[in-house]
Amino acid sequence: MRRFLDVLYSAAGGVAALSILAICLLVSAQVGLNILARIGGPALSFTIPSYADFAGFALAAASFLAMAYTLRAGAHIRVNLLVSRLPERGQWIAEILSLALGAGIIGYATWFSVLLLAESWHYGDTSPGMIPVPLWIPQLSMVVGLGLLTVALVDTLIQSIRNRAPVVIDFGSE
Amino acid sequence: ETWDMPTPYGDATFHTQNIRTFAEDVAAATDGALAITVHSANSLFPHAEIKNAVRSRQVPIGEFFLSRLSNDDLAYGLDSQPFVATSYDDAARLWEAQKPVVTELLAKEGLMPLFSVPWPAQGLYTNGEIKAVDDLAGLRFRAYNAALEEFAALAKAAPVQVEAADIPQAFSTGQVEAMITSPSTGANSKAWDFVTHYTAIDAWVPKNIVVVNQRVFDGLDPAVQEAVLTAAAAAETRGWEMSKAEAAEKTKVMEENGITIVQPSEELVAGLQAIGEAMLEKWNETASDEAKAILEAYNN
Amino acid sequence: MAELSDPVIFGILLTLLIALLAAGVWVALSLMIMAFVAIVAFSNAPAGLVLATTLWGHSHSWPLAALPLFILMGEILLRSRLSEDMFSGLAPWLTRLPGRLLHVNVLGCAIFAAVSGSSAATAATIGRMSVPELKERGYPESLILGTLAGSATLGFLIPPSIILIVYGVATEQSIARLFIAGILPGAMLVALFGGYVMVRAWMAPDSIPKEDDTMSLREKIVASRRLLPVMLLIIGVIGTIYTGVASPTDAAAVGVVLATVLAIMTGSFGRKEFVEALMSATRTSCMIALILFGAGFLAIAMGFTGIPRNLAAWIGTFDLSPNALLAVLTVFFVLLGCFLDGISVVVLTTSIILPIVQAVGIDPLWFGIFLVLVVEMSQITPPVGFNLFVIQGLTGQDILRVARAALPFFLLLMLGLLLITVFPGIVTMLPNAMGN
Ligand code: NA
Ligand code: NA
User: Fold this and answer.
1) Is C100 in contact with C201 (CB distance < 8 Å)?
2) Among A18-22, B209-213, C375-379, which is the least confidently predicted range?
3) What is the largest CA-CA distance in chain B?
4) A16 with A69: CB under 8 angstroms?
5) Nearest chain C Cα to B38, which residue?
6) Inter-residue contact B233 to B115 (CB < 8 Å)
7) What ipTM score was computed for the predicted complex, to two decimals?
8) How far is the C-alpha of C220 from the C-alpha of B110, rounded, in Å?
9) Cα(C101)–Cα(C92) distance, integer angstroms
């Protein structure tokens, strides 16, 4: 189970990274086409339809899918200056509280993002750009990403409770 | 009761000013029983989310640009189809034909249109005069939707996607050399900083629409409902007059600031009309029956 | 609970936020929880649906797409020899200047601000390269962090600028003029920051490490060869914007491609380094995105509760003189900026503030720049300051410590505010010269 979850978080992180790469390639391709049009004149002028929309959707995927992976890597920001001065038991209680509150609000967000997707699906909402994209498709990344973050928060909470001491290590902290 | 009302445009826009007057009218007519708080300039929800926020009753009422929905049904977008309705009279007739269809489409999402107000007719911004369609050939032309891209292609111009906020920079760096937009947008973005000529081709007269959630509306006291509908009807009439005044005033502002205002030559008009017809032919291939019915009603 | 007054509600919410942050709840989640409480307790809006709409609505914006790309560019530069080369090339020229290589932070941010529209991207890109180099050379940490946090705020003032676009669109001011208006105040801040570094170095000369000072002019020029790749990168990115083949957002992608090519050409950068850079950029941009979502939800919650709007209207009731009004607004914005991000501060209050400001005869163009300076200050004040978050992400130093290092720069921004108020020409001179 531990291994399965870790692979799951990393895999989603990998897809997020690929999404960033996709934004980069898409935009570079358009800049390349702009340069071609500048050299070759209007006859050689092409645009990638809705490229700004697609870059935006890839950004959403990158942001949401990386959330659990980023949490487990300790890269989400928090103020640890005060907590770190508490005795270990105090730190542990604060961590459990943080994880429980976090799981609560993100679980809540996940549930309502499912409702939002269901509504987009029900009404057949599409993006307004040159290429109409059914909105539920990019919104899927939101549901999956938030769902994974909920899982990761609960997972870490269970780890922390079992461990009877704090388990979250922030990236770069000394 | 208090209603939060998200709108996409800033306080200096006549649409927003009209809506603020509408809110005051409602408050006055209902003795404060219904107060509408206007959240302008996307300060509550981004433009793209306003319609759905009203649909799911996050807010009871909201405003958006009607032809944003053309991907859902082409019926929404006829007011942004180049050279279909090019004057306020045409636009009023088009809205008359469009209204029942749009009302029915929106009803499927639990929404009810209250009123719709046009932007001034869209003109052509360029550096140098455009005497005929041929003069557009080779120009980098701002296109932000499928219709404009097609328009650019038919005019043999090169379509470039530029977001509204990037327009001044795009002109000053030569990323674009021509665009079509209203005199309001031209004057407000101080177009004289980056173009020399405005040709009043009146390409189309797009509209904003204000919608209310049907269930929320039905829950109102009948007297309050009546007050809202009365204020809405007044807002529509007032908004169209404001739009006409705006068109004249903003064109004058541009002229005063050194932009050459050009009435299009007959040759240019004929060329643009031909492009419009070609586009409409293609439009007919994909339009829904409802959308075609609007065009039919409008043409007869 | 409608009987509670707005300042009391504001106080309750702020206390809640501080308690959550102090308990170690992640910043983004603290913002979301605070916003949730605000909506449920003090408005009639359905919190869950609004939360989902905000998350979606803020996640796919096109101008934001540049952020991960600029971060990725910084990560690539860090892992190649390019950042080291830049420092070796600059070092010989800065040895005589008090503060030496600390000026790389100030000037690097100023140059990069001409490419990027946001402060966070500027902090992430320059900080990625400069922090490890400066640390290794033994510069005092508080000055490394402070110069970076402070100078990165130039991202908003020197065009292009996301915040000026937001202000220009909301108030229908010419964005072109706002951009031009930001140039001189930007230069003024560069001078203030650079001057401050020199004063600090002059006061405690031993704190600044010695750089090799024996080179002849010829040797210095030879050493500058190493600046060439970085110069090519900057010219390439700025060049694509100003020749019009790329928008400012597009330019970020050009930056990534050029940085990758140059990194490979200068050696020691391969697939392994690229994957590391990409994964690190993924984490950092996800961290920033989640906080932006939290801040966005809080902004909507504030919109529904009407607190910023009511406070702004309340200020309007005092009929203050222009200078008194500006002083009160500065305090108001600094307070709001402590827990809202700058863009939200602007959109939530301009509708009320701008008419008040115009009524006393203040030029809205000038006010836009005034607002940007205040927003820049909010970037480096805790608990919610995006430059602080980015720098914590880069260095692992807690945001409170970073905020302390940034405090002098907060005061310098305040001084900048005073200067443009006393000499409004700093703002209006260039746009007026554009003429009609
Ligand atoms: Na900038
Ligand atoms: Na702050």
Assistant:
1) yes
2) C375-379
3) 59
4) yes
5) C351
6) yes
7) 0.95
8) 72
9) 10
**Over 50: is that where the pLDDT of A153 sits?**
yes
∠ Cα A12 A17 A20 (to 5°): 130
Closest C-alpha among B240, B126, B67, B15 to residue C172: B15
Decide: B253 and B187 in contact? Cβ < 8 Å: yes
B71/A45 CB distance under 8 A: no
Tell me which H or E stretch contains B113. strand B111-118
**How near does any CA of chain B get to the CA of A51, in Å?**
9
What's the pLDDT score for residue B255?
Answer: 95
Q: Tell me, in angstroms, the distance from the centre of ligand 1 to residue C182's CA.
A: 9
| Number of CB atoms found within 10 A of residue C165's CB | 24
**Residue B145: both structure tokens together:** 């939707």
Show which of residues 19-38 on chain C sit within 8 Å of chain A, judged by CB atoms: 20-29, 32-33, 36
Q: Which two tokens stand for residue B86?
A: 């090019």
Residue among C115, C128, C205 nearest C154 (CA):
C115
Question: Nearest chain B Cα to A52, which residue?
Answer: B161
**Do A79 and C401 lie within an 8 Å CB cutoff?**
no
Say how far apart CA B247 and CA B184 lie, in whole Å: 7
Torsion of CA A138, A142, A147, A152, to 10 degrees: 120
* The three-state (H, E, C) secondary structure of A31-99, written as one string: HHHHHHHHHHCHHHCCCCCCHHHHHHHHHHHHHHHCHHHHHHCCCCCCCCCCHHHCCHHHHHHHHHHHH
Locate tokens 């910023």: which residue?
C308
Q: Backbone dihedral region of C396: left (phi > 0), alpha (psi from -120 to 50 degrees) or beta?
A: left
Rounded-to-integer distance, Cα B222 and Cα C147, Å: 63
In angstroms, the CA A166 to CA A84 distance is 11
Helix, strand or coil for residue B238?
A: helix
Sign of CA pseudo-dihedral C3, C4, C5, C9: negative
What DSSP assignment string belongs to B63-78? EEEGGGGGGT-GGGGG
Size (chain B), residues: 300
Structure token pair of residue B56:
């799911």
Task: Report CB contact under 8 Å: A101, C25.
Answer: yes
Measured in residues, chain A has a length of 174
CB pair distance less than 8 Å for A98 and C24: yes
Q: What is the DSSP letter of A126?
A: B
Q: pTM (2 decimals)? A: 0.93
Residue C126 one-letter amino acid: I
Give the containing element (helix H, strand E) for C416: helix C399-422
End-to-end CA distance of chain C: 54
The model's pLDDT over A27-61, given as tens digits with 9 standing for 90+, comes to 999 999 989 988 887 677 788 888 888 999 999 99
Residues from chain C that touch B257, judged by Cβ atoms under 8 A, are 436
Mean residue pLDDT across chain A: 92
Q: How far apart are CA B5 and CA B148, in angstroms?
A: 31
Dist CA B216 CA C114 (whole Å) = 49
> How confident is the model at residue C436, as a pLDDT?
44
The ligand minimizing its distance to the Cα of C381 is 2
Q: How far is B234 from chain A (nearest CA, A)?
A: 30
pLDDT (tens digit, 9 = 90+) per residue, B72-82? 999 999 999 99
Nearest-CA neighbor of C182 among C253, C238, C110?
Answer: C110
Helix or strand run (H / E) with residue B44: none
Confidence class of residue B165 from pLDDT cuts 50, 70 and 90? Answer: low
For residue B73 the two structure tokens come to 């049904």
- How far apart, in Å, do the first and last CA atoms of chain B sit? 44
Residue C117 has pLDDT above 70, yes or no: yes
Question: What is the residue-wise DSSP string for C124-135?
Answer: HHHHHHHHHHHH
Collect all residues of chain B within an 8 Å Cβ-Cβ radius of residue C436. 192, 257-258
pLDDT value, residue C278: 97
* Contacts with A93 (C-beta within 8 Å, 6 or more apart), sequence order: none
- Contact of C303 with B45, CB cutoff 8 Å: no
